[in-house]
């Protein structure tokens, strides 16, 4: 690979360069089958000992209200406020670290695998034309939210990827401020 390769021969590079979070999305959402196809390729996310220490909870319809009520309870805000937050997108994906017993792989490594899944999945959804935004907040690891998401004892949430359609007027790509490579690609 050289720097003279044209961008069009690098679909992953292009998808990454164009990816952007979408805070406002439409009511359209990928189907369960479409989502399943994307989640299937998460088997290739780098994963020490291939523990697959993660799962994604698919929240649609009323399940988002269950999340909203728990957010409201944890944040001590009115129920409606929580529900309006959790229903900002037609599909909400809870990203869960499901740690596995391992003498070799500590928890923090397993958490990075789940984070990798969230990033790769967001990228694939964006490439497929869907709008995504990863959200967390103070309530993410609260008791009320844990209970609403039916987490097992050892599981932890990494937040939610909100997914929906990209509004017509938001489809234009806005180039980003370039990175300062002297700061982000360093030597010893
Ligand atoms: C773990 C994680 C949690 C985040 N939580 C929030 C959040 O609660 N609220 C928010 O506005 N942005 C949150 N963000 C940032 C947005 O997802 C998004 O990255 C940011 O708005 C910048 O947009 P961009 O992805 O197009 O650069 C979070 C990002 C990550 C990785």
UniProtKB/TrEMBL annotation:
Q: Where is the Nitroreductase domain?
A: 16-164
Enzyme superclass (EC): oxidoreductase
Give the source lineage, highest ranks first.
Bacteria, Bacillati, Actinomycetota, Actinomycetes, Micrococcales
Any idea which UniProt keywords this protein has? Flavoprotein, FMN, NAD, NADP, Oxidoreductase
Q: Describe cofactor binding as the record notes it.
A: Binds 1 FMN per subunit.
GTP-binding listed as a keyword: no
Q: List, alphabetically, the InterPro entries matched.
A: NAD(P)H_nitroreductase (IPR052530), Nitroreductase (IPR029479), Nitroreductase-like (IPR000415), YdjA-like (IPR026021)
Stated name of the protein: Putative NAD(P)H nitroreductase
What cofactor does this chain's UniProt record say it requires?
A: FMN
